[in-house]
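Lab intake sheet, docking and co-folding queue.

SAMPLE TYPE: protein with bound small molecule
LIGAND NAME: S-adenosylmethionine
LIGAND FORMAT: SMILES
REQUESTED OUTPUT: full 3D complex as structure tokens
PRIORITY: normal
SUBMITTED BY: R.K., bench team

The fields below were copied directly from the construct record.
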Amino acid sequence: MKLLVIKIATSHEIEDALSVYSQDNLNALGVETRKRSDFEQAGWLHDSTVVELDDIKDLPEDMQFMAYFDEEADKEDLVKKYQKKLEELKGYGLNVGEGEITTSYIADQDWNTAWQKYYHVIDFSRHLAIVPEWEDYKPTFPDQKLIKLDPGLAFGTGNHKTTQLAMMGLERVMIKPQTVVDVGTGSGILAIAASKLGASQVLATDISDESMTAAKENSALNDITNIELQKTSLLQDVKGKFDIIVANILAEILLDLIPQMDEHLNENGQVIFSGIDYLQLPKIEKALDENGFKIDLTMKQGRWIGLGITRKDS
Ligand SMILES: C[S@@+](CC[C@H](N)C(=O)[O-])C[C@H]1O[C@@H](n2cnc3c(N)ncnc32)[C@H](O)[C@@H]1O
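RESULT FIELD (auto-filled):
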């Protein structure tokens, strides 16, 4: 079998936006970037070996973004969608660089394992470490909890800044064994983090089949029995109320979640949002205000924003 590769000559400013769009909206099997700054940094780091940038084959002007798809995927349609996305991002005032899109096919014999070389242990905090299934890790603190993970085709390796912001938020708000709903669970990473941090019961929802498979397998990998899965859009058809709602999804989708939150949040409940590009923050603030919520905590990594939210009257 072969893979379709879509390569975009672009700018590092839109790396995260293209990664999330490729995986969430276009179901890419994987994404990869080559940045000029990485090569330049290599020249600095190994100061005994001066890296001659001119000698590097196919050196990106700024960044090359590669997305991998099944060979049956509609190439022309994907190219059109990427062109549209670049236009949209440009409209937000972002630098999209050259924007040239090329396509090719490669044999996929190594793909399933080749990407594993990019995922290593993330010693995330004093409380949590994310450990790929194929790696060994001994915690520095004896009570540091390990999240064992094989993300499969679902989003959520722990490497993404948006996942990390959501985990920071969870660590901040979980102060007793509370109930949690993880909306858009992907690999299940946040649901597992919540369970490991002491949640009494966790519900994880997602619209994608890949996510349901990955989250189920990852719960089992971590010997977790208090995570329930429900395939649905956001909190639609979800029964009951929770102490904590956590959601790492793009802002446009969070806007649909906000009106559903009151019905599913216990008294004094808390909400953690991540996945918000800073340019989209005003829209989120307005929707929260209109729905009776206020922001108590704002976290930022790069251009991504994470929020801690409560009801206005709490
Ligand atoms: C950015 S990923 C986050 C994955 C994981 N929670 C993490 O933090 O790494 C967003 C996830 O939301 C899911 N998603 C997108 N739209 C959704 C919707 N309307 N309802 C439920 N899940 C949705 C996607 O399938 C994807 O798994």
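REVIEWER NOTE: The pocket of S-adenosylmethionine is lined by residues 20, 24, 154-156, 160, 162-163, 166, 183-186, 189-190, 205-208, 211, 233-234, 248-249, 253, 275 (CB under 6 Å).
SIGN-OFF: pending second check by T.M.
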